[in-house]
Design goal:
Blueprint (H helix, E strand, L loop, with lengths): L2 H9 L4 H38 L8 H28 L22 H39 L4 H9 L13 H26 L1
Helix pairs in contact: 2-4, 4-6
């Protein structure tokens, strides 16, 4: 080994105090990242609840508004035809049938039972993402502390190791409402299949 290589190797060694301080910083940063992961998990659920509770007005979108107005116009014309025919048949106006349209501001999430099922699947999904995020943080923290203790690092390189802790956002993604519905549908299909198998066994 050349003198230059030996000199560079010696320069790479951290002092005992610096190694200890750096390890403590990594541990503290790990705690912060775990807390941030939990905060993001709560934010994911809050965003899902916002989607679940959303009620859309017919006039909040130009396309919806135009479609609703056109449908109302057609409905009005059809109702006039029905009223005219009722008159011809001698049906009193108070007893005459009517046709109408109504804007539904919600879809399946209008059902309380459906919201409960979707909420349960969303909670399970977020819990799984949180667990994966925390596990990833702990693994990286352990790797960094091991490298700090076993290897000599220049202070500048030590900072790079600290920065190499992956952002929690890589492990915590937002919930897709359609993914939740698909997961719920798979669960329901599995329950139906299980019931069929039990029924076949009984016969």
């Amino acid at each position: 080994m050349s003198e230059r290589t030996q000199s560079e190797s010696a320069a790479r060694q951290l002092s005992r105090n610096e190694t200890h301080d750096l390890s403590m910083i990594i541990k503290d940063r790990t705690k912060v990242l775990k807390a941030h992961a939990e905060e993001q998990a709560a934010a994911c659920l809050a965003d899902f609840e916002r989607q679940l509770a959303a009620i859309y007005s017919w006039d909040q979108d130009e396309v919806w508004k135009k479609a609703a107005e056109e449908a109302q116009k057609v409905c009005h014309e059809v109702q006039n035809k029905i009223a005219k025919r009722c008159e011809e048949l001698g049906i009193p106006r108070t007893f005459a049938p009517q046709i109408g349209i109504a804007w539904q501001g919600r879809g399946e999430n209008a059902s309380r039972e459906r919201r409960t099922e979707l909420r349960r699947v969303a909670k399970t999904s977020v819990d799984a993402m949180l667990k994966a995020a925390v596990t990833k943080i702990e693994h990286q923290s352990l790797d960094l502390r091991t490298q700090v203790v076993s290897m000599g690092l220049l202070s500048a390189e030590a900072k790079l190791f600290l920065e190499s802790l992956a952002p929690v956002t890589e492990a915590m993604r937002s919930l897709d409402f359609h993914d939740i519905e698909k997961k719920l549908e798979r669960e329901q299909q599995q329950r139906i299949a299980d019931r069929r198998r039990w029924a076949e066994r009984e016969y």
